[in-house]
């Protein structure tokens, strides 16, 4: 029980630390990796319930966490990439991330879609 409580405290601490970072590319990737790992571990834990011998399949948690970390990292890299990025005189071309926001104004719902087409760092 002490180990479980320690893991829970560590997860809450790491989630609060990552939200304090500025929205830089590295922090977005780190945050998505962390969320993917936690989600994968939860899914792996839930999968144990459907096995005949749950105590023999505890490695599902590790497999879920590892898969979640990989998927979270890939998504973080995709999310933090613009179509054209100019940095230190170099131009980089990549696939843009499309972001969709739903906003409510004056009782009406508006869907807003954005994509970073050009990003310049000064």
From TrEMBL:
Keywords: Signal. It comes from the Bacteria. Residues 1-22 form the signal peptide. The keyword Signal applies. This is Glycine zipper domain-containing protein. The lineage of its organism: Bacteria, Pseudomonadati, Deferribacterota, Deferribacteres, Deferribacterales.
């Amino acid at each position: 029980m002490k180990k479980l409580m320690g893991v829970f405290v560590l997860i809450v601490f790491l989630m609060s630390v990552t939200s304090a970072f500025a929205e830089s590319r590295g922090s977005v990737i780190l945050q998505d990796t962390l969320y993917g790992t936690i989600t994968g571990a939860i899914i792996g834990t839930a999968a144990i319930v459907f096995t005949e011998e749950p105590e023999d399949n505890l490695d599902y948690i590790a497999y879920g966490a590892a898969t979640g970390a990989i998927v979270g990292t890939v998504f973080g890299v995709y999310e933090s990439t613009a179509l054209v990025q100019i940095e230190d005189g170099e131009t980089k071309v990549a696939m843009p991330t499309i972001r969709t926001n739903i906003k409510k104004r004056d009782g009406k719902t508006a869907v807003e879609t954005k994509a970073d087409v050009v990003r310049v760092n000064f």
